[in-house]
């Protein structure tokens, strides 16, 4: 196998692995942020179920959940 082809294949494998690691890191980051917001929303609700911040927190949580869903769907492809 010519050296250029071998180097090209190794580079492709490296970039694929790096992309996978980056995506896994992104997923873990999203999960952590989701958990922090979930706890915040729960505590806010416990303190005052009518707190207007609940809507804002909930919307932020929805955005993160949607982003996690998109990220994990892309991983499955």
Summing up helix and strand content along with how strands pair, one would put the structural category as mainly alpha
- Global Rg: 20 Å
Strand content: under 5%
Estimate the mean pLDDT confidence: 86
Query: What is the CA–CA distance across the termini?
Result: 30 Å
How would a crystallographer describe the biggest sheet?
none
Tell me, what's the shape?
Answer: rod-shaped
Topology:
Elements: H1 3-47, H2 53-76
Structural features, described:
The protein is mostly helical. It has 2 helices and no strands. The protein is rod-shaped, with a radius of gyration of 20 Å. The mean pLDDT is 86. The two termini are 30 Å apart. Helix content is 90%, strand content 0%. Helix 1 (3-47) packs antiparallel against helix 2.
Jot down its keywords.
mainly alpha, 77 residues, single chain
Task: Give me a quick take on this structure.
The protein is built from two helices and no strands. By secondary structure, the protein is an all-alpha fold.
